[in-house]
């Protein structure tokens, strides 16, 4: 018997949002604003402070927070190498928050994704969660400042929760998805949960955890191998979901 899907877990980058938004808009915005943010702090960073930025930077090894130049170089290298570092993600979230609040940033969520998020959750039993390597704070900011035909709209009211690498673990690890299933009370019915991502390794991990999972192909995403195409279910738009 086919188990109906009543829970969706969405990746963000390359799935519901163009992959270029992160790499061509958010990352450069962060690096452009970071020097000014660091220039307002006293180095070396002392963790004995209630300032949220200082608390984040105090998690760095002492040698990486000795001067603003060294700290900037450290974070720039992480961004350039696309390293999923929790400290970087937390700091990015704080800087992006100011950009969203100032109206300098809006998230270009795909039209099909905006409509799907609204329509799927009209059924009271249906729920949508977000699982991204970006911090939960950054996820909430993104979905609360969505560009919908030139207007900024808030989609967070349609979302039931958020997971990141700090709360759930790394996205290529099946144990992360098992942890999420437990958190959302779906351990006994994992097949009723569908995870959507552009990343083959993430889809594989979700399937190994017992979920259903499809690969989402969008413009600019990494090409799939012939083996991937024959192994996994592929969609090009959330319009294709018949749930």
Question: How would you characterize the overall build of this protein?
Answer:
- The protein has 243 residues and is α/β, with parallel strands linked by helices.
- The protein has nine helices and eight strands.
- Strands 5-2-1-6-7-8 form a six-stranded parallel sheet, with helices on both faces. The chain has a two-stranded antiparallel ribbon with strand order 3-4.
- A hairpin with a 2-residue loop joins strand 3 and strand 4 (151-153).
- Helix 4 packs parallel to helix 6 (136-144) and helix 7 packs across helix 8.
- The two termini are 15 Å apart.
- The model has no long low-confidence stretch (mean pLDDT 94).
Strand and helix map with partners:
Elements: E1 7-10, H1 19-39, H2 52-57, H3 68-80, H4 86-101, H5 111-120, E2 127-131, H6 136-144, E3 146-148, E4 151-153, E5 161-163, H7 174-183, E6 193-197, H8 200-208, E7 212-216, H9 226-231, E8 234-235
Parallel strand pairs: 1-2, 1-6, 2-5, 6-7, 7-8
Antiparallel strand pairs: 3-4
Short synopsis of the structure:
The chain has 243 residues and is α/β, with parallel strands linked by helices.
């Amino acid at each position: 018997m086919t188990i109906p899907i009543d829970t969706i877990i969405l990746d963000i980058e390359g799935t519901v949002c163009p992959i270029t938004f992160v790499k061509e808009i958010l990352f450069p915005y962060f690096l452009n604003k970071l020097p000014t943010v660091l220039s307002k702090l006293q180095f070396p960073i002392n963790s004995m402070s209630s300032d949220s930025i200082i608390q984040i930077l105090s998690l760095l090894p002492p040698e990486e927070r000795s001067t603003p130049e060294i700290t900037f170089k450290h974070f720039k290298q992480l961004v350039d190498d696309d390293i999923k570092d929790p400290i970087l993600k937390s700091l990015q979230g704080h800087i992006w928050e100011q950009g969203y609040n100032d109206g300098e940033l809006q998230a270009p969520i795909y039209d099909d994704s905006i409509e799907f998020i609204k329509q799927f959750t009209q059924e009271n039993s249906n729920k949508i969660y977000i699982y991204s390597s970006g911090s939960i704070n950054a996820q909430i900011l993104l979905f609360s400042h969505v560009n919908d035909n030139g207007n900024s709209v808030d989609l967070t009211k349609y979302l039931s929760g958020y997971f990141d690498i700090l709360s759930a673990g790394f996205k290529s690890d099946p144990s992360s998805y098992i942890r999420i299933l437990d958190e959302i009370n779906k351990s006994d019915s994992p097949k009723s949960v569908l995870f959507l991502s552009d990343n083959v390794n993430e889809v594989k991990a979700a399937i190994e955890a017992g979920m259903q999972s499809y690969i989402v192909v969008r413009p600019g995403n990494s090409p799939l191998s012939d083996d991937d195409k024959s192994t996994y279910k592929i969609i090009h738009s959330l319009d294709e979901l018949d749930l």
